[in-house]
Amino acid sequence: MSSMFRCIKCGRRYPIGTRLRCECGGLLEVEHEFASVNLTVFDRRLGSSAHPYHSGVWRFKELVHPDLDEAHIVSRPEGNTNLYAHRLLEEYVGARRLALKHEGENPTGSFKDRGMTVGISEARRLGARVVACASTGNTSASLAAYAAQAGLSCVVFIPEGEIAYGKLAQTLAYGAKVLQMRGNFDDAMHIVQRASAELGFYLLNSVNPWRIEGQKTIIFELLQQRGWRPPDWIVVPAGNLGNTSAFGKALRELEAIGLIGEMPRLAAIQAEGANPFYRLWVKGEEALTPAKPKTVASAIKIGAPVSWRRALKAIRATGGVVEQVSDQEIMDAKAVVDRSGVGCEPASAASVAGAKKLVETGVIDPGEDVVCILTGNLLKDPDSTICYHTGALDGITPRFPNQPHAIEPELSSVQEALCRFANEDRIRS
Ligand SMILES: *Cc1c(COP(=O)(O)O)cnc(C)c1O
Ligand SMILES: [Zn+2]
Hints:
The protein has helices spanning 39-45, 61-64, 87-93, 112-126, 138-150, 165-173, 185-199, 209-215, 217-225, 242-256, 276-283, 308-317, 327-339, 346-360, 382-389, 411-428, and strands spanning 3-7, 13-15, 28-32, 83-84, 97-102, 130-134, 153-159, 177-181, 202-203, 233-237, 265-271, 321-325, 369-374. It is of the alpha/beta class. It is globular. The chain starts with a strand and ends with a helix. The structure holds pyridoxal-5'-phosphate (PLP) and zinc ion (ZN).
């Protein structure tokens, strides 16, 4: 095997297998011994429609899980997500070269599918029968779908009443056994780790190193779409910090094997009400202090992110930064992303709100080349979108509302409503 597990805390190595933590308690990461890798292999596969290389994850198999037998691979296929630009977004953020990579275009509507295809394929290689996760919603939707496709049983632990409706609907529909816990995501994360250890479930949270391997391909695919020219900045919403870690690992590996020259800088964006990593960063602390999370962006409503150590490594290695944004800024940024015809769920818009703030504070130069990652699809959380536009979100005054108007089934009523719409537009511009 050319892949090993390595403890990120003490460096101890293990053969790849069911173990997910080091004896010292540290998280493991996959360490590959890359055979000579050539970009032309990945470029050649771009036009292919053959399983599994038409997937935006497995196209990069040599950098993800080189020795895995293709027969184990469960793929929808994932990835192949698009880059979008829009004048409204450039003006709002204040950056002239801004693109959004829309991970909401994955099969179940979030980037989680990229990690899950690798995690589930590995579960099949290991002969696992039951897979499990704790989730703020998208991980459970993704795991439920991939488990169903692979014919595995699936148990998910979710915080009661805190999961966006679209995500809960997906999870139930795909047939996962759903355990709704009184408590928040951090409580669910704690109990799923104990339950997995005791009951032998194969755990597919981002503590699972294979999830990180799959999520690296967001970076690989992004760079490939840009002719392997890195942008100056990659801006990503940050909750449990799996993605931030995966991005750092992807960039380190590309640099080590000589596939990129310059390092783009990573900016990880947290919600103000769920900002333990931001606080660690600004205070220069060496250990993370958990806190009770509160934010409208449920996908990043996490007070004790498990991957903070490897995320910190990623920020430092790329000369990156950590920033925080308010719920108001998140929802207004989301409204602009939506209004551009692109659309995303609240947590995703943290990247755009964060980029705007970093331009305003002079960290990002308006002429720099910026890519914001949109992590999830607009349809995941219809409640927050409608509540924003109707002014029903607690503590948020929508800057870009779009209210529906009730009318009578008469032409005069239509004309009156059109006048009101015209007035609203005038006031706003
Ligand atoms: C999971 C998720 C995040 C947070 O990603 P982390 O890797 O946990 O930091 C952000 N946005 C969406 C839509 C997600 O599903
Ligand atoms: Zn260790």
